[in-house]
């Protein structure tokens, strides 16, 4: 079955420290992987995607993510966290084996502490 | 280019009533998906429409239905509302030149009392 897991409901990190938000996936076909961010009372904003090519992808606001096929993971990272990065982060996978339907994780709430 | 728009932004309804939500995708996008977001469940996929045809459907009861018009605008209808239908309903469009990702609207906050 297709699924996306974000094992941490909440991540706290001090401002200036590196941050990681974890994501693992399970699909039947080739995965297209995405990260989205949601600020309070807003829709989701696209951060970055992995379709093919380099395993390390860079996105908006200094975020990057590494695709690891053997571990079926796509963790979101940033070298130096900002207070303004505090938000809800969603990992998603688009499964080419099931009509390209999107599957979202349950979200990880990131709090950056000043 | 204008983003995805959803109307209304907020809605309060009573149990048993029905509701229709509207979504206008980004110009040129032909695919529209609907999601229900609740604090405990995250984003739950409702359905996807492409060129006026339902392409995928999530695991929701038949009270939830949708349609897409020839201009790609989409509506979602929920009949016989229940308290548990209170949620943020998000619409997303895709299908432009960079068609892999979805672009989300701000959502419609539905409260059922």
Report on the structure:
The complex is a heterodimer of chains A (114) and B (113). In chain A, strands 2, 5, 6, 10, 11 and 12 form a six-stranded mixed sheet that branches. Chain A is 0% helix and 54% strand. Chain A has strands at 3-5, 10-14, 19-21, 24-26, 31-38, 44-50, 56-58, 64-68, 73-78, 87-95, 101-104, 108-113. In chain B, strands 2, 4, 5, 6, 9, 10 and 11 form a seven-stranded mixed sheet that branches. Chain B has a four-stranded antiparallel sheet with strand order 1-3-8-7, with no helix packed on it. The N and C termini of chain B lie far apart (37 Å). At the A-B interface, strand 5, strand 6 and strand 11 of A face strand 5 and strand 10 of B.
The average pLDDT score of chain A comes to 92
State the order of secondary-structure elements of chain A, H for helix, E for strand.
Answer: EEEEEEEEEEEE
Quaternary state of the chains: heterodimer
The description of the largest β-sheet of chain A is: 6 strands, mixed
The count of β-strands of chain B is 11
Essential attributes:
heterodimer; A: 114 residues; mainly beta; six-stranded mixed beta sheet; B: 113 residues; seven-stranded mixed beta sheet; four-stranded antiparallel beta sheet; globular
